[in-house]
Design brief:
An eight-stranded mixed β-sheet has the order 7-1-4-3-2-6-5-8, with no helix packed on it. It has two domains: 32 residues; 105 residues, no CATH class. The protein is α/β, with parallel strands linked by helices. It contains two helices and eight strands.
Amino acid sequence: MERTTLDLWVGIFVVAGVAALTMLALKVGNLGTYNMSETYQVHAYFTNVGGLKPKASIKSAGVLVGRVTGIKLDTKLYEADVEMSLDKRYQFPKDTFAKILTSGLLGEQYIGLEPGGDSLMLKDGDQIKMTQSAVVLEDLIGKFIYNKATEPASTK
């Protein structure tokens, strides 16, 4: 009887471990907050998307309002065309500003939406015209080093 009880407890811990690993995988894969509500599609052009990936979050005021559904290069403009799926519960004005932001210093990248003041709202298939590309850490470091190198040496 003791062997059966021991096997039962081992089984419970194995199931709990698998459930914990599944939850962790969903959280890391950014799928834990998947929403099945109706959406509308918009797109925006960025000169540099950095490390933005499909299924990345789209947030406004810190609230998840959608997901990135696709990223492709527009060969006419040579810019990244980012397709976004926004929840229909959240309507944004046509002059909404889209920025690629980073969670923390080296965290995942997401799109932040700042609503404008236009009375007309974005519809399915519209384009967000005002965008700000990702800040690339290597570019910032390169600019800083270049600026320091071009400064005249101090004569103290």
